[in-house]
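Re: beginner question about structure tokens

> Can someone show what the tokenized structure looks like for a real chain? I only ever see the sequence side.

Sure, here's an example I had lying around. Input first:
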Amino acid sequence: MTSKDNYNELAQQIIENIGGKENVVSAVHCATRLRFHLKDDAKVNEHGLKELSGVVDINPTPTQFQVIIGSHVEKVFKAVIAQGIVNGDAENSDTPSDKQETGIFNKIVDTITACMTPMIPALTAAGMIKVILSLSTTFHWLSNESSTYRVLDFIGDSAFYFMPILLAVFASRKFKVNTSLAVIVVGILLHPNFTTWVASGDPISFLGMPIQGVGYAASVIPALLTIWIMSYIERGVDKITPSSLKIILNPTLVLLITAPLALIVIGPLGNYAGMGLAWVINLLEGQLGFIMVALLAAAMPFIVMTGMHHALTPIFVASFAATGTESLILVAQVCANLAQGGASLAVALKSKDKSVKSIATAAGISAIMGITEPALYGVTMKYKKPLIAAVIGAGISGCFAGIMHVTLYVPQNSVMAILGFSGDKGTANVIAGVLMMAMSLVLPFILTLFLQKEPKGTVSSNEVETKATASAL
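And the corresponding structure tokens:
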């Protein structure tokens, strides 16, 4: 059977075990999980889902039913959508919610996940271009005055500069507003005439109301707030305009109301909120750095279990947007992910059971590459002591990273972060970063070898097939 057939069969089995198509409102996915919006969670066969080959584990939350797949989740997601399930990420998806989301915090996390997670590949790519430029000047491959360097420089800057536009696209889908209008409204904040006016220092006003001279390039919060407010404006305008004139009046009124409001009120408020977040980041990375990185690295597996790691996304995105660096969230994630990988590889080395070796090896490699769910659910949580070893190792390496002020210049949470330590801090940061990664990998590996007895006879044959398939598909 081809891989495509495997994915289609798995998709059918998943849908059957979550209560059938009629129980699914919509589905989305992140880096490792299918996230279903269900009508009735009681119809889910949780035991059946866990037994499926290709499913690592499940994670029910108040707002979504999450099925943890692994790094091949996108292919499984496409197979699920092909079965007739509504794509919750689709721009034209306006399926009404049949289940009320509970809790403000859950709504915020859900919004952050939908709006900001899709941006990470663009930020990673742009960050890697910056790393290439840094290496080029360090080793004298390129002069920073050359045209090639300058072209690569604005290629690397583009994702950060136009971050508000990216946010407008993804936020428009989440808040269900017209995407083209959302892009135009946020684009006004980046218009060359406006930015030149701001740079000149001359007073700006609209209908006698002052507009603060704020630059919005690489900002996060102003764009999100603007599209959120725009969603209410768009619905309000739609209610008051006659049907025969909606095609003309609706977009015109939405633009005329939202754009000035963004310039006069929303943008400046978002800018102040961003400055406050930057202050908090500086505090955590500075005076409390070694404590915070250590605690966060040690706690990361438990944060991932709940799916709350997405709530941390705006912190490191805001840090990169403001400074081009990050010394807290992603540094802690690198420590935690490599620690999961080290502990899983130790289990693979110590076990004489071929099936356990296969699962633990695949999961360990996956964790080192930044995807920890197979290791977390398939190995370290299962045997407990490897999880303890991973937590201790991540905490120690995180403490070291905080003391040494290890800084990342590229958004990366895997072994590839080794390319992201080169920057303004020079060789010292590279050495400290490499040592941090070595500690993250080696300490849990050694601790697991000492703490864990040979893992055998604890995995059913069906469960072995499940984990192995999840890592190999």
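Each token stands for a local structural state, so reading them left to right follows the chain. The chain has a mean pLDDT of 82.
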